[in-house]
Amino acid sequence: MVPALIEGEIKEMRIEKNFKDRKIVLYQGDITDLKKDAIVNAANNNLWMGSGVAGAIKSRGGVEIEKEAMSKGPVEIGEAVVTTAGKLKARYVIHAAVMGQDLRTDEKYIKDATFNSLKRAEELELNSIAFPALGTGVGGFPIDKCAEVMMNTVREYLKTTGLIKEVTFVLFHKEDFEVFGSILDKIWKQGQV
What is the pTM of this model? Predict the structure, then answer.
């Protein structure tokens, strides 16, 4: 882990793995600060924005993001919808419905929501997308299992597309960043990326 400047902002922790013409980046910080084609919101299937990542996106980007998202819901758990990004630096917010109204999630929902978020990005011909750790806040899913599910889903998806050039996993807490870093190293050493 090395400190690095992200898009000219304050120093944060960052790990980058390059393969072919693509890269997977781990970044410790606030997802709402990033200037990417899209950032992903860990959403519920009615697409209302409460606390955690959703609350931060709504607070920094504006309530119009939530209004637009809710107009597209409800959706099946595991689906993803796209909205504008309001006042955020990103161009779009992809709302990954990783949980239902009970605010619980599981491995299948996380995998499907990750896959469908990548699919929405590809449909819009986007080059960069940033994910939070889906389902680990309000959803209560273990961070290590989340890292494995999400990274393996991204790895498999990137084998089938040339459009998405950069996938960033954004972890707010240092401990979560370290867990994702450990899982990425494990996958990388096994030659799975």
Answer: 0.91
